[in-house]
Amino acid sequence: MSDLSNQAYELGFASVGLDVQIWPSARIAFPEAISIGDSVIIDDFTFLVGGTRTRIGSFVHLASFTSITGGGEFFMGDFAGCSAGCRIATGTEDFLGGSLTNPAVPAPYRQAERSFVRIERHAILGTDVAVMPGITIGEGVSVGAKSLILEDCEPWTVYAGTPARPIRDRPRQRILELEEKLREELYDADGAYIPHECRVSQ
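^ that's the sequence the OP posted. Answer follows.
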C-alpha cells in the first residue's frame, strides 16, 4: 500500500535509496535525472529541477522553500543540508542584453547558460542562502543565513555575508569522528545501509 504522505517511491527517479521521505507538497521536475541516496528528507514546498543530472547523497535534508533550479548539474554529498529558503541556481540567463530571457522564450532568441553547483559532504547552508552557478562548496563548509555565494568555498570553513567571506574554521576531526560512529551503527559488515524498520526490530 502506498504512503500518501511520501512521494519518494512514486516519482520515477533514476535511483532512490532506503528511508527517503519526500513530502507531498514538494515539487520535483525531471525526476528521471535525479539519483537519491539513503535517509534523505525533502520537505514540503521544496522545488527541485533535475536538470542535466542531479545526485543527492545519503543523510541529506532539503528544508522547506528551498529551490534548486537552472537546468544544469547538481551534486550534494552525504550529510549535507539546505536550511529553509535556500536558492541554488545551476544555470542562468544572459542579463547583459545579448538575448531574450526566461523559459517562455524559445531558442535561438533565448540563450540560457547551463552550469553546475557542487555541495560537498558535511556542508550546511543556513536559511535563505543563495548559491550562483559554477560554484563548489567544499567539504564541511558552513554558510551563515542570508549569505550570497559568488565564489568557491574552501573546505572546513565557516562563511557569512553578502558576498560571503570566510570567518573561521570548522571542527573537521569532531564531525568525521561522529560520521564514523554513525556508520558503525547504521551500516552492516558489508557496508550496506540498515533501514530504520530493521534497526527498530533488532
